[in-house]
Amino acid sequence: MERVTVNLRDRSYPIYIGANVLPEVGSLARPFGLSGRGTLITNPVVGQLYGQQALSAFEQTGIALTLLEVPDGEEFKSLKIAAALYERLLPLGLDRRSPIIALGGGVVGDLAGYVAATFMRGLPLIQIPTSLLAQVDSSVGGKVGVNLPQAKNMVGAFYQPCLVLSDVSLLGTLPPPEFRAGLAEVVKYGVIADKPFFEWLEENVAAILEGREEALIHVVRTSCRIKAAIVEQDEKDEGTRGVLNFGHTVGHALEAATGYGVFRHGEAVAIGMVAAARISCQVGLCSEEVPARLRALLQRIGLPTALKIQPKQLKETIGYDKKIKNNMSYFVLTKDLGSVTVAPVFDPLETLEGLSAT
Ligand SMILES: NC(=O)c1ccc[n+]([C@@H]2O[C@H](COP(=O)([O-])OP(=O)(O)OC[C@H]3O[C@@H](n4cnc5c(N)ncnc54)[C@H](O)[C@@H]3O)[C@@H](O)[C@H]2O)c1
Q1: What is the DSSP-derived secondary structure letter of residue 135?
Q2: Which of residues 173, 194, 215 is at a domain's end?
Q3: Among 82, 173, 192, 268, whose CB has the most other CB atoms within 10 angstroms?
Q4: What is the CB neighbour count within 10 angstroms for residue 213?
Q5: Pocket mutation for ligand 1, best pick of 50, 107, 170 (most atoms within 8 Å of C-beta)
Q6: Residue 182 alpha carbon to ligand 1 centre in Å
Q7: pLDDT by residue (tens digit) across 152-175?
Q8: Pocket flag, ligand 1, residue 157 (CB < 6 Å)
Q9: Beta carbon of 75 within 6 Å of any ligand 1 atom
Q10: Cα of 59 from ligand 1 centre, angstroms
């Protein structure tokens, strides 16, 4: 089993990565002094597939978990569902060392993490991410939260888990479009921080898409290492963590402008990354090779890369981001593959408009 540590002083934690490692999660949790009663939060799809295995893994180490299901879907990452979970936790007689285990994709992880951060002012959280996006991104870094009807991820906390276990074998049941969407974030890590990893992805796309476990372990381990290093420098997202938003300014705007549900988040990010790389060329930061190689890799993965709508249709949504500062759109721009910088772009839609014909 591979181990990546997120070093955050007293909030440090290990991420264990391997194939067929779910049965080991109970023994991995032993050092954390958890009490014998806790909760497993999942959804019906993931619960049906892996709920029993996860329950047994904890049972073997003397931790009895109550399984609580939330409906499957982004719309259920809400305060209403969080409140329903509090109601169901109340009669269970939990104590301050009772763990909450999040078994699922990013929706379950964010929601269960938010409940863990807030119920009884904080219970130990264990993340068992089951989607690629959750294994490479959302389970790492401590952002937990729920959506408001008007805005995604508007209510939440920074709350680090005590342990993350990523079993790449669980990805075998993930619907292929979800798998591809998760790969957008993986490609992002190569672009923002690690050119050799980007090149490795170019060479190993086929093995990854075939689901070869060695390749998947390398993908998850490298992604977690990169994200951990960034989070370690800026846990609360006050500066350098912003580089993780590469591709997200246009991506979020596109998701919002098309009313969510048209594009998966990873698909919108793929389009946003190509747009950001093209803007980077336009302002003279990088060569044409960068967007060209990025686009080619994303297309081989099966992700969209063209904006598909007129840039001016993003006018209303491009600024609607809680990370906006001084009314300017800040973009993460590429200097080269593996190297980015954050800079304000005064007229990003105009720039995109100029590029849309090419
Ligand atoms: N906290 C963070 O830092 C962070 C970062 C990125 C994204 N997010 C959040 O993550 C969420 C998206 O996560 P997601 O892409 O995992 O979506 P998701 O949780 O909705 O999962 C996608 C679909 O795959 C199913 N699924 C998950 N694992 C499966 C498996 N092993 N086999 C079969 N089906 C499986 C789910 O039931 C769901 O239908 C968004 O809410 C986003 O805001 C959070």
Answers
A1: I
A2: 173
A3: 268
A4: 16
A5: 107
A6: 9
A7: 899 999 999 999 999 999 999 999
A8: no
A9: no
A10: 26
Instruction: Find the CATH number of the domain harbouring 144.
Output: 3.40.50.1970
Rounded CA-CA distance 282/300 in Å is 25
For ligand 1, atom 22, which residue shows the shortest CA distance? Answer: 105
SS3 205: helix
Which ligand 1 atom sits closest to the C-alpha of 185? 6
Residue 264: strand pairing partners: none
pTM above 0.90, yes or no: yes
Report helix, strand or coil for 328: strand
Q: DSSP secondary-structure letter at 72?
A: S
Strand pairing category for 125-129 and 100-104: parallel
For a ligand 1 pocket test, name from 48, 69, 132, 133 the mutation site with the most ligand atoms within 8 angstroms of its C-beta.
133
Strand 37-42 and strand 100-104: the pairing is parallel
Domain that holds residue 134: 2-173
Q: What is the pLDDT of residues 240-298, one digit of tens each?
A: 999 999 999 899 889 888 887 789 999 999 999 999 999 999 889 999 999 999 999 99
